[in-house]
Amino acid sequence: MDGEVAQLAALVISANNRIAHSDDPMPWFAGQRAFDRCGSIAFHTSHKRRYGKDRRVPVAETPGDWLDRLTESGVERVVMSCIRQDQDDDEDMIPDRLSAGFAGGGSLWSMTSETPDGGVIRWTPGWRAAYPRDPDGRIWAVEYLANPSPATPPGVDLEEVRNTLRAALSDMNEFAQAQHFDQVAAIFGSALCLLDGAPDPRPVPRPPGPADTLPPPARRLLFAAQRGWTFDNMSLWRDQDFSQDVWVRYAALSEQLYTAVTTAMVAAVNASVPV
Fold first, then answer.
1. Does residue 171 sit in the same domain as residue 136?
2. Quick one: pLDDT at residue 131?
3. CATH code of the domain covering residue 108
4. Contact 136, 145 (CB under 8 A)
5. CA-to-CA dists, residue 34 to 13, 15, 142, 221, 227, angstroms
6. Is there a domain that residue 275 lies in?
7. pTM for this entry
8. Which uninterrupted H or E stretch holds 81?
9. CB of 142 within 8 A of CB of 7?
10. Cβ-Cβ contacts under 8 Å for 123 (sequence gap 6 or more)
């Protein structure tokens, strides 16, 4: 899954777990995979000046400090959101599913923190390759910038989202099989197993992390959506020799899958929001 999306998901789930279970030490938090490619992760707000560029004001210099600031300020929930960039009348706009594999491409992902008095802050990530020679591969500097925002409604029907994701994964699996892309079909087949909570035919190491705090249905939904995210790996479909009709079918199925996967990720992550 895209690193930016994975990190946002981890922060939202972790923040809501801290809010709901303040006594949970979350020993996995600081060393989780969502942070392991980052040399720095900071949280700032922007202070407008009469002249010159806006000044960045530090809020927290680490994710752990950010969690502390949230609880100190009385935040009652953190909500993830995804906004499409390609939903307008511009015929030349590249679909989000195609641009998702490029820096700054895809949909706009962010999170909002909300206090009981109606205060809402939107945290928007910015990634920069600031440490290209880091020996441990921690090349990224990530800054989350805070701005006032309307509230983000988190509630959705998980079962409905699950059914939509199942249909999209099944259709893409059948298409890949019909076109003899066995490796691709195996990915979508494993995503369907994860959605059902069945043994994963393509298991990967899963150290303890934020997803473990989710209810089982949401956890299965998240894992399946993560496995179904193939939009940054177009080489899976290399050597395509599709007819025009098949290309049209492929584009329609890919669009259906992108919508289902992104919706499922948001729904699964926001299942962590305290009731």
1. no
2. 96
3. 3.10.450
4. no
5. 12, 14, 12, 18, 16
6. no
7. 0.92
8. strand 77-83
9. yes
10. 43, 110, 111, 112, 113, 144, 145, 146
Please report the pLDDT score of residue 106 as a whole number.
Answer: 83
Asked if the structure places residue 153 within a domain, the reply is no
The reply to whether 171 falls in a domain is yes
- Based on its alpha-carbon atoms, the radius of gyration of the chain, rounded to whole angstroms, reads 19
What is the domain range of residue 44? Answer: 3-148
Looking at beta carbons, which pairs linking 82-88 to residues 24 or more positions away fall under 8 Å? 82/107, 82/108, 82/109, 82/262, 82/263, 82/265, 82/266, 83/107, 83/108, 83/110, 84/108
Task: Express each pLDDT in 89-112 by its tens digit.
Answer: 666 678 888 888 776 678 999 999
Compute, in degrees rounded to 10, the torsion defined by CA atoms 69, 75, 76, 81: -90
Tokens of 21: 């279970």
Chain mean position to CA 203: 20
Q: What is the C-alpha separation between 270 and 225, in angstroms, rounded? A: 14
Residue 261: which of 35, 82, 13, 94 has the closest Cα? Answer: 82
Query: Of all helices (H) and strands (E), which one includes residue 162?
Result: helix 158-178
- Answer yes or no: is pLDDT of 22 > 80: yes
Which residue type, as a one-letter code, is found at position 50?
R
